[in-house]
User: Fold this.
Amino acid sequence: MEQQYKQVNFNLNGKDVSCVVDIRCSLTDMLRNQFGCTSVKKGCEVGECGACTVLIDKEAFNSCIYLAVWAEGKHILTLEGLLGPNGELSDIQQAFIDEAAVQCGFCTPGFILTGYEILETGKLYTDDELRKLLSGHLCRCTGYENILKAVKKVMYQRLGKTPEEA
Amino acid sequence: MYDIKALYEAESTAHAVQLRLEHPEAQIIAGGSDVLVQVREGKRAGKALISIYMLDELRGIRIDDEGNLRIGSLTSFSHITKDPLIQQYIPALGEAVDMVGGPQIRNIGTIGGNTCNGVTSADSASTLHAYEAIIELTGANGIRRVPIKDFYLRAGQTDIRPDEIQTAILIPQDSYKDTAGYYFKYAMRNAMDIATTGCSVNCRLSPDKGTFERVRIAYGVAGPVPMRAPTAEAMAAGKPVSRETVQAFAQAVLQDINPRDSWRASRALRQHIAVELASRCLTESVHRAGGAL
Amino acid sequence: MPNVGKSVPRVDAMDKVTGRAKYTDDRCDPHALVARVVRSTIAHGYVKSVDISQAEKIPGVVRIVTCFDVPDIKFPTAGHPWSVEEAHQDVADRRLLNRHVRYVGDDVAAVVAENEVAAAQAARAIRVEYEPLPFVLDPIEAMQPGAPVLHKEYPDNVLKHTSIRQGDYQTAIQEPGLICVDKWYEVPTVQHCHIENFICYAYGEGDRIVIVSSTQIPHIVRRTVGQALGLPWGKVRIIKPYIGGGFGNKQDTLYEPLCAYLSLQVGGRQVKLDVPREDTFVSNRVRHAEKIHIISWVRPDGTYAARKLEMYSNQGAYASHGHSIVAKGMGAFPQMYPCPNIEADSYTVYTNRSVAGAMRGYGIPQAMFAFESHTEDVCRRLGLDSLAFRHKNIMPKGYVDGFSKNENYFDSFNQCMDKAVAETDYVRKHAAYAHQTGEVRRGIGIAPFWYNTAVWPISLEHSSCRMVLNQDGSIQLQVAETEIGQGADTAYAQMAADVVGLAYYTDVHVQSCQDTDVTPFGLGAYASRQTYTAGFAIRQTGLILRDKILDYASEMTRMPKYNLDLMDGEIVRTTDGRVLLKLADLATEAFYSLTHSVHITAESTYQTKSNAYSFGCCVAEVEVDIPLCKVKVTDLLNIHDCGKLINPALAEAQVHGGMSMGIGYALSEQLLFDPKTGRALNNNLLDYKLSTTMDHPHLRAMFIENYEPTSAFGTKALGEPPTCPVAPAIRNAILNATGVEVDSLPMNPHVLYRRFCQEGLIADPWTKEG
Assistant:
């Protein structure tokens, strides 16, 4: 039968974009293959590992189980969109480097994006709350320890607090 | 890329109903966290899909004219948890759906999808049973309401007619008023898991907090579909609020439940856990209702 | 300024936090053809026929090959160095596709299509007719007469049996007054679960085949692809980009040969073989499940008179790394607690299950669970203090292993245990937790572990290194001991900067994407050997480069070489400390001099003929909710003596990851096989219980830095060791909390429910009093 295509208009990393997609594509497929967003990783393709996480209208989603056509009208943020206008790293990316939270790097983009979503709430969370907020990502290298440390560090930085004050 | 034969995107509830009639072979897709996984597995590969995901009219929570708490079927789990009405009237439901999968799944997963797929382990289902929720379905002839216990026909099968889509879930005022509840998800890990057994309990205490006026309990994975434990409920009603009542109530659930042996867990473990959860959930419900044990 | 020993950021961190790091799939043409493997649906039997007629009609299908089409060549897959001695070569027991299928998931046919949907549809449309045979899933059953035979060359299914004999066990057990502790322990099949699945793609170039692969061992894969396809090895080129974890699974040749074959079948067009997660679990490699039997004859004073060990290792359907794994575990037995009279036997047995290969720890996590659970059980039986028992009996300082010549240069075991005990308040807590009642109880447990670095003298150990000076005085560094996430490239940069005399490790550009056409020959990333083995080659090559630089400096400055030094990127006259020249200026001159132009480079191979012990221990504290049959780890501390730390922050991070894998091994992970069909039951990340952020305590890692005397930089193994002691430490903590010996992993609610019922901690729900 004839393949079905559809034009999708959305905002990607701050820019309005549009493209024609095969309706069978996941958002992962579209972002990787049509927009070159290599930060969107495929680890399970069923929403269990979190490697393909992107923010859609400021909430984290597994792009592997999200149809590309649903991007219509949405604001989508991938890791590529966190860089400043001159390629500067965001605070959370820098914290991942400084806290040795990166090993093989395959889960890293997803974790950073969820970390960014958490930090954008401007709230102070306990360790247990942070663990829960980050629990949609699997990592086999880090034991999550330094990832938590990195997110926590920026959380305190942004709130102008130290862990002791909290 | 998914093996999808065709995708029909509904633009309104009425359009969705029309698409259902035009494409009887097509599968409804809401958030897709179950349907797309099944497409990939091959189980639903090559099927046409009717997407209702873009129907914002099916999102949101409000109190309707009858005093029901009305949850639009496409409301995501995370939005249910964050909703002030849920937090005020039925926090146990907000907590239950906050245990589904992980944060990303809770952003895409919808309460409508969670109930329509007819799965016994769904984290929302036991709490909805324990609060005697009503399923609202919209079809060619208008709206039909079905009590949730009748909505589940058998494992994986719910009472949705060929022209219908589920549009809302209603929690009757009598269910949530003056009632406190608690959901315990028993799973093999603390996130990204399905329930080995899920237990949701709520109770209404007498004004002096000395007597159980009403106790309701429902389980996931204690049988092929989510189920209540009527013997236990009847046993507790009218009894004093005491540890003895809680223990007797917990033990009585064994009269009602019928978990099976599978590689995921043995019947014996599930029975043991069901009793333990009944006790812990009722205890917590009593505390939340202002009672003491 | 030294770079070694500093917690500098990773050299690849920027690539990885921006998403621009290119992994295999990121380099593949999105329009590449897609391959999909059709897998056996039976556990054992013969393929009678494969009907591809319906599949061929599916639009987009380009080519289908079946087990009847492929060349009749058997090849080995283990990521071991090749041996020029036939007796030491790995077992060659598989073909590209198999007519005799030996497990559910075996490779029967492959589809090449224009896209993944067409490939999946075709794979589903292929009809395979089988002649089923009886199958066997358990190694001990597989050894019994009459059991189904997997490989006719091994009629009893025993791939290999090796033994250790010391003293005279039979005589020693006659000693009067001995107490016998006789127990079985069991560990399950688990999987690596690197977040990037195995993926490769292949294409023809000239008369050669190029394979870009997510592998730990590019040079080894080059050889095995050559062997599998019957090609001269030089006709194969392997490129290894960033990889999303390996943990030993990718220390094996996986689907590179098949992918290359498929590409050649379609005229060298680019073909991608991206293994789905479900197949990664079943049809890559797993960690060997083992059944372990230990009999200890102990004197009442707490010394061993004689010990016996039997290990049965479940190999699954093909040899892969085979017997090496259980043999390594067995090798630790007589060393860890030396005893004069020992009988040890290990068997690696073919069964109709997923193929077991290398996985972080290489036989030691299995062995440590049994050995250190047993230590605790022995002490419990004798009423001895298990910590004192360990201090008294564990391998002493100065111990030398007769085979490997490894020497325990420091009192590492006792130092590590002392530190762990002090850090956790172990002694007080262990006593306080010993006699609790109530539903929720706490416990603390300890387990030391034995490990050794690299593989000498079992097989070849060497590393080759190339250093190339750039115009700006920076250098390129190439070694084939690959970066797989562990941080090797950063450690190499730190080492090289110091050896050559550069100011910063960032002056060393490590070529992370390896290419067998470019990277000097080396064996890859495994056996926790990278810093140790590559360290020798880096030091040796760095000294050569430095020497050449000083020759040129002597020429430029007209000073004798013996009065010159290269420090922090500057040529210094040692007699007065004056800086004569910047390396950058020297380099530019060397490149472009009209009188003496030379590209200063160095390359050398170092063959390692030593090995180093790398010991440590773990202390776990737990809270056991008995009615819920659940264990919560509340504190976890690993102490390692891995020699000098090259990069303390990365070392600590690596330990966290290993501890995490240990938590999963202890409490939740297990790949289950249906006894009725042999099919894997939980081969996905939902049903296979990898631990999440919410299943971990705060992880603590600490070090004892005894400078390893055999090592080029004082360093030794750290990659695998952190995983080894965690499960027995948690197990011993549960024992401390509940008094229940749990002798199988994972200690999940299913197991704890059974054990707590057996021990009377839980009553059957029907008999509970209302």
